[in-house]
Amino acid sequence: MKILYLFFCFIFFFTFSINSQVRSLKVLTDHHFYYDPLSGEYIELSFQFDSKNIHFIKSKFDYSAKILLKIKISQDTTNFVNTTYLIDSPKFRDSLFEDFVDVRRFILKPGKYLLSFELKDFNSNQLPIISNQHILVPDLHSKISISDIQVCETVRESKQENMLTKSGYDLFPRLLNFFSSECKYLPSYLEIYNPFKDSLLIILKTSYYSLDTKKELDHLNKSKLLKLGNVTTIIQKNDISDLPTGSYKLVYTVLKDSIELCTSSYFFDRTNELYDIISTENIILDPVFNSSVSNDSLKYYLLSIIPISNESEIPIITKIVREHDHVKMRSYLQTFWVTSVGRLNASDGWLAYKVQLKLVEKLYKTSIFNGFETDRGRVYLKYGAPSAILIRETSPSEYPYEIWQYDKIKQFSNKRFIFYNPDLVNNHYQLLHSDMQGELKNYRWQQILSKRNSPNQNIDDPNDGNKDHYGGESSDVFKQF
User: Fold this and answer.
1) What is the pTM of this model?
2) 106-115, 218-227, 280-289, 350-359, range with the lowest pLDDT
């Protein structure tokens, strides 16, 4: 499963919004791959619509909304899917609207495709949300294979088949891969495929891997013996109540005679405030940490680790800062680095980060924001120094901008960030667009960058509001990286 997440790792998980004076459509999306013995491999697309940002129309008895959804899946010049839906929301008696979901499935042969979709609030003048991404449909039929992991809000036996029904169960998808301390369980659904006629005894192993410590949590490992049929459905209610705050990978592995046959993973973030309080209270403060941070700078340094913290840790950091407890602040700062790089390397890791923090402060601080609070400072601290930077401080028609290019970020290659300065009077460059997963994506970034010269907001304009003009070279430069 591939997720684009709001910080979100993919599981391809992402949130879209377009700034405007009126409400903007916000949608969470996810996709999974499965196999049907009668039809073949298929993709399942899930959409969750934020009701607070949708225009509901009142009728005589209730309120309702409509979403226009266009989906295209293509390969080279051939369209395998090209369809349009008008999605009706549930009907609400009053204005207490709830989020709602939609699920679509399409048969696709294994291979690479371009997945494109467009979403628009039917009752709004807002511009549509447009997304394009490459997907790889796996071969799930020629050997023992395992599907993507579907994490659910709830799972229940289906009384009547509907769009949420799979293998006799209604699966209510969970499209956020963040679990707060109130979440005690992680319900999951997956399928194992056995193309051979004979039934097969296998071991299904469930394990957790900490992305912070880069270690498997052996005490949480579970295994069970299964007899595989043609399609074997697995539904598990995974207990995560004892997982401390951090980033994790849930892994299902199919084993035969200790040989790994196939595996499937799900990435998620977890916050567990009760566990955090216990762990930070018991930590022994390192003299190196004490001497490197004065009480006057504790707040600054604790907030400075937000760019390299996961989404679940940020509320904890801000809460500790508000409490002004110096001992707790020092304890958390040390705990963070012990968790990130290990106890033996914690002090060295922290001191090396301070050097980078000082550089970011010098380069990107503004009259209002510390260096780490700016977009360029955050990206620098999170991903390191870029491989190349192109700076355009003056342009006849475009705002000042910078393009950063990274040869490698973790498993991703050739990722780009474009920052711009719409205020012109300070050093506060804002992130305008990036092709890095989990970062801001803005398909109208060229129009915004040249807004002084191209004020057109006509959504029917085939050039999307962009006009050819002298000095407008940002698009060509961005493509060259």
Assistant:
1) 0.58
2) 280-289
For residues 163 and 135, the answer to whether their CB atoms sit within 8 Å is: no
What is the distance between the alpha carbons of residues 417 and 439, in angstroms, rounded to a whole number?
Answer: 9
CA distance 158 to 161: 6
Other Cβ atoms within 10 Å of 457 Cβ, number: 11
Q: Determine whether 324 is exposed, middle or buried from the number of CB atoms within 10 Å of its CB (0-12, 13-18, 19+).
A: exposed
Task: Report pLDDT digits (tens) over 121-157.
Answer: 999 888 888 889 999 999 999 999 999 999 998 888 8
Half-sphere exposure in the Cβ direction for 303 (13 Å, CA)? 16
Ramachandran area for residue 329 (φ above 0: left; ψ -120 to 50: alpha; else beta) = alpha
Tallying the residues shown for the chain, one arrives at: 481
Q: Tell me which residue of 443, 442, 429, 441 sits closest to 393, measured CA to CA.
A: 429
Residues sharing a CB contact under 8 Å with residue 31, sequence separation 6 or more, in sequence order: 1, 2, 12, 43, 44, 45, 46, 115, 135
What would the pLDDT profile of 54-77 be if each residue is shown by its tens digit?
999 998 888 999 999 999 999 998
Per-residue DSSP letter, 53? G
Query: Is residue 244's pLDDT more than 70?
Result: yes
